[in-house]
Design brief:
The complex is a heterodimer. Chain A is mainly alpha-helical. Chain A contains 14 helices and 1 strand; from the N terminus they run ααααβαααααααααα. In chain A, helix 3 crosses helix 13 and helix 5 packs across helix 7. Chain B is globular. The chains are: A mainly alpha, B mainly alpha. Strand 1 of chain A pairs parallel with strand 1 of chain B.
């Protein structure tokens, strides 16, 4: 083992400590948590998890979150694909300005949009539905998807398109049969990032929902304040929110670095 | 060279419609509020640029902006060098690469309020792992709900925990794209480690580092949920960042005019940063 591997090891240990504490807490009884400090759960209990899986207000939170995240990912990637193709292959009136305008939305502070979003989605009758949150998250996810896909598409030589057209492929057939399989890593990475940013965002999701589409994260905040100090329950719910991320990240592990570089390495 | 083809507009139309719906309509609402005064009952009066003047002159806004800028400054000077060092010492191939990548990316996939809640549990003075360790093992008095310095150290540590991996992953992506031949050549020339870093690794990382710095700049400037859940802006107002103050005014006090004016000023600052970002990025793309 080389001497410098100590740095990543220390860093990963630092990353894992708070996560360990959250998971350990979720297996402790409330009594033990409030009773004092213990490094490991003294009496293991699944009570917190049982509450989450049997109480509809809890498990519906997860279903709601997964529902709007999925809708958002599908919409974002679908509309971003042709747009990214246009940005990477064509020049058209105002393309640079348009690309820049898209990016500004990725940079907009969500706090700026919370109130007007509430009014907009109430006005169109979508308030407290999956669609409201899924559409609202498009604000920053579509620009991100366009950006990543454009980066990946830029790495595909234009000769591929030209050869296909010479061979008599129509555009839709070329796009679906040849181009999409070529950039499938990019599509996966774009979908991953849309999933990620929709999954972790809370401010808009909380503002746009009340009862029926409430995300798990909002359920957590409300329980934390209303039911007093139920730390075990809070920890268990938190632990469960880490799992979906951990699963999807495994599928894109080889591309994740390139994805964070927005396809531009 | 890309071909001129106005059909491109057809391809981008769905994106433009969706984003415009989400961006322009709320933006118009904000602009509308920012120039009006109301006494309730949905009756509005023209107020000109009064709110903007009030906000820019108010101590509260300046203090919140100052705290936000200080936060972003600390984040950048800690996370960027740290991220570069970690990326440089990561393995380049083998079994440990995916392990490193996945564990390092994990904090970024945790919902932001869970990050806040997790750090809250972690730092509780008597029953949190860090809080207990500091108070009872090291004997340092640590309670971030009482002490502003402790609160600041905690939100900074939390952000370092949460986002340094972004810098690491970006730099790592730049590093693995360096062909082995470069290193071999450097070895033959007898180049020092510093020379390898300065003349081979740094130039290769320049572009991804630009992305990293600017993404970190913008995201830390817009940060809201994690510090809000962790400290609620306290103790007192010591960790009330600009975004926290904005949500307080808009959704807490429902002062629509000042909140809207503040939003626009806030947005103008991020817009300027975005422009800078875009210019730097496209300059790289041209090369």
């Amino acid at each position: 083992m080389r001497k410098r591997s100590i740095i990543p090891i220390l860093y990963i240990a630092f990353l894992m400590l708070p996560i360990y504490w959250l998971v350990a807490m979720s297996f402790k009884t409330t009594q033990e948590i409030l009773g004092g400090f213990s490094l490991f759960p003294q009496t293991w209990t699944l009570a917190s998890y049982r509450t989450i899986f049997t109480d509809p207000t809890w498990y519906w939170g997860y279903i709601n979150s997964i529902a709007y995240v999925t809708i958002n990912t599908v919409i974002s990637v679908t509309v971003a694909l042709p747009a990214a193709y246009a940005f990477s292959r064509y020049r058209f009136l105002g393309d640079k300005q348009l690309f820049f305008w898209l990016l500004t939305n990725r940079m907009a502070p969500a706090a700026v949009f919370a109130l007007p979003f509430f009014q907009l989605y109430s006005a169109v009758g979508l308030f407290d539905t999956y669609w409201a949150v899924a559409m609202a998250h498009c604000l920053f996810n579509i620009p991100l998807a366009v950006w990543i896909l454009e980066g990946f598409m830029g790495g595909v030589p234009k000769e591929l398109d030209e050869t296909a057209f010479v061979d008599g492929y129509s555009f839709p057939r070329f796009f679906l049969k040849i181009f999409l399989p070529t950039i499938k890593a990019g599509v996966g990475v774009a979908a991953f990032f849309c999933f990620m940013f929709s999954w972790v965002e809370l401010l808009l999701a909380k503002t746009l929902t009340a009862v029926y589409a409430k995300p798990i994260a909002a359920t957590m905040t409300k329980t934390a304040s209303s039911a007093g100090y139920e730390l075990g329950l809070l920890a268990a719910a938190g632990t469960l929110t880490i799992i979906p991320g951990a699963i999807v990240i495994w599928f894109v592990r080889n591309y994740i670095a390139k994805g964070f570089a927005l396809g531009r390495v | 060279m890309r071909k001129v083809n106005q059909k491109g507009w057809l391809f981008v139309l769905p994106v433009v419609i969706l984003v415009a719906f989400n961006a322009l309509i709320p933006m118009m609402t904000v602009v509308n509020y920012s120039v009006q005064e109301t006494f309730g009952d949905n009756v509005f009066f023209w107020h000109g640029l009064g709110w903007f003047e009030d906000i820019l002159k108010s101590d509260r806004f300046q203090a919140a902006l100052g705290r936000q800028a200080f936060f972003t400054f600390l984040i950048l000077i800690i996370e960027v060098p740290l991220g570069v060092i970690i990326a440089l010492s990561m393995p380049r191939k083998g079994f440990w690469v995916p392990v490193c990548l996945v564990t390092m990316a994990l904090p970024m996939l945790i919902p932001w309020n869970v990050v806040g809640a997790m750090w809250n549990i972690f730092t509780l003075p008597d029953i949190g792992l860090l809080g207990y360790f500091l108070n009872h093992v090291l004997g340092v008095t640590y309670d971030m709900t009482q002490n502003p310095t402790a609160a600041w150290i905690t939100i900074i540590t939390m952000d370092v925990w949460h986002w340094t991996s972004l810098v690491v992953l970006l730099c790592y992506a730049g590093l693995v794209s360096i062909p082995d031949a470069y290193y071999q050549a450097a070895k033959i020339d007898g180049a020092s480690n510093w020379a390898v870093f300065r003349y081979i690794q740094l130039p290769k990382m320049k572009q991804v580092l630009t992305i990293a710095v600017l993404l970190r700049f913008m995201d830390s400037f817009n940060v809201y949920t994690e510090p809000f859940v962790l400290t609620g802006g306290g103790p007192g107002n010591s960790t009330t960042l600009l975004s926290i103050d904005l949500v307080k005014i808009a959704l807490g006090q429902f002062d629509l005019g000042p909140a809207a004016a503040m939003s626009l000023i806030y947005f103008a600052i991020t817009l300027f940063a975005s422009w800078l970002f875009y210019t730097l990025m496209t300059r790289h793309d041209v090369k």
